[in-house]
Design a protein that fits this description.
- By secondary structure, the chain is an alpha+beta fold.
- It is built from 20 helices and 12 strands.
- The strands form 3 sheets. A 5-stranded mixed β-sheet has the order 3-10-5-8-11.
- Strand 6 and strand 7 form a beta hairpin.
- Helix 16 runs antiparallel to helix 17.
- The N and C termini lie far apart (80 Å).
Length: 450
């Protein structure tokens, strides 16, 4: 497997200092030779097969030392672990695995020290931990006798784990000077690892509850605002309910602030994804070019409304066109319900039909929690001006469920310079648009029409 990995590395691209992907085979080979090639070759050499004929103790120790070169490949793994740092459970698992790996290495060193001490000390002064283990288990060393290799390894691992996590329990204790020096080093390593692991665990727990902490902080600000400005109870309840609903829907994430950190092309892709249902289902956007849809998606804003919230008051300027994404709203005039609108319904006015900005003849109030997409008149007309081939198609396909414009009011033109231009633009579409009804009875539930 190591040899196959070397061959794959000779065909693997890399990123140079200029953040460019290098795919030239010669440059890849030179880069690999200067980097991990030597370590990978040493790790790939089968020392067990080369030294198979010799089975003495010195050869076994040499093979073990040569095999440790493979541990250097762990540096590669450590460099790629940062991408998983955002996952708390993964970080905790990696920390525990690292802890167990270091304990295993220290256990091997502890056993090596005990093995050297057992062979170096005379028979009347054998006080090492291996000799104590043999005495406690009634398995004295002799001709091929003594504690089994499993017992020695488990005891060594038990000592390192107990020393790393605490100060040990004393049943496996260092007696010789080398063992005591090593035990001091293990305790120092253990204190650093203990602080590192528990510090990361605390950070992981805080990260898991960071959303809850932000919610309570923002809720406290809302309550402070209500108390400072002495908001009356009905309005206070609406504020708190809206905040709770908006937080449950967005999790406290301001999409506009998030989008500002990305380039414009990526912003357009994100907005196109967020508004995909509206752009795909609404007949007004059928036949629009991809560029036009991207431009439109950048201009749409999402509005959340709690039950009882009035979106449009009678007499308000109709400077936005609303598309209902979720929930139900009612249209009222003089406390009489004229229509009840739901998902995929549209209300406002057709900006392509009128030169001036109209005013609402009704109140628009949310019956349930509603999500609406809205686009401002200036933004819509700007995009239709950039895509004139889509202007007429949009004005014909736009089906407004309820027309809010008050026809009984007189409206001055936007300004003198725009009057002639708007009139010439409307002349080609006015015949068709006059045939259109002010609301579409196929959508929503229209109770009365004034």
């Amino acid at each position: 497997m190591f040899i196959i990995d070397i061959l794959i590395n000779f065909r693997t691209t890399y990123v140079n200092k200029n953040d460019e992907v290098v795919s030239h085979p010669g440059k890849i080979a030179v880069h690999y030779f200067k980097g991990w090639f030597l370590i990978d070759v040493v790790a790939a050499i089968p020392f067990d097969l080369l030294l198979f004929q010799t089975s003495n103790k010195e050869t076994t120790t040499l093979i073990g030392l040569l095999k440790t070169a493979r541990l250097l490949r762990l540096v590669r793994v450590a460099r790629k672990l940062d991408r998983y740092s955002e996952y708390g459970a993964a970080v905790l698992l990696l920390l525990m695995c690292t802890f167990a790996l270091i304990a295993h290495w220290l256990a091997c060193i502890w056993y090596a020290i005990g093995n050297v001490e057992h062979g170096a000390l005379p028979d009347d002064r054998k006080i090492g931990w291996l000799d104590n283990l043999a005495e406690q288990t009634n398995q004295p060393y002799g001709n091929g006798t003594g504690p089994s290799i499993q017992s020695r390894y488990i005891t060594a691992l038990y000592f390192t784990f107990s020393s790393l996590t605490s100060v040990g329990f004393g049943n496996v204790s260092p007696n010789t000077n080398p063992e005591k020096i090593f035990s001091i080093c293990v305790m120092l390593i253990g204190s650093l690892m203990y602080a590192s692991i528990f510090g990361n665990v605390s950070a992981i727990i805080q990260r898991l509850y960071s959303g809850t902490a932000r919610y309570h902080t923002q809720m406290l600000r809302v309550k402070e605002f209500i108390r400072f400005h002495q908001i009356p109870n009905p309005l206070r309840q609406r504020l708190e309910e809206y905040f709770q609903h908006a937080w449950s829907y967005t999790n406290g994430i301001d999409m506009n602030m998030v989008l500002k950190g990305f380039p414009e092309c990526l912003q357009a892709d994100i907005c196109l994804h967020l508004n995909r249902n509206l752009l795909n289902n609404c007949p007004a956007f059928k036949g629009a070019s991809p560029g036009c849809l991207r431009a439109l998606s950048m201009k749409f804003k999402t509005t959340h409304a709690p039950p009882g919230d009035t979106l449009v008051h009678r007499g308000d300027v109709l400077n936005s066109l609303y598309f209902i994404s979720r929930g139900s709203i009612e249209i009222l005039k003089d406390d009489i319900v004229l229509a009840i609108l739901g998902k995929d319904d549209v209300f406002g006015e057709n900006f392509c039909q009128y030169v001036t900005i109209g005013k609402s003849k009704c109140n628009v109030r949310a019956l349930t929690y509603c999500d609406l997409h809205k686009i401002v008149r200036e933004d819509l007309m700007e995009i239709l001006g950039m895509y004139p081939e889509f202007y007429e198609q949009f004005s014909q396909n736009l089906e407004i469920t309820f027309e809010l414009r008050d026809e009984d009011m007189s409206y001055p033109p936007l300004n003198s310079s725009d009057t002639d231009e708007a009139a010439s633009t409307l002349s080609s579409n006015k015949r068709k648009l006059r045939q259109r009804k002010p609301f579409n009875k196929r959508k929503g539930t229209v109770l009365f029409n004034f």
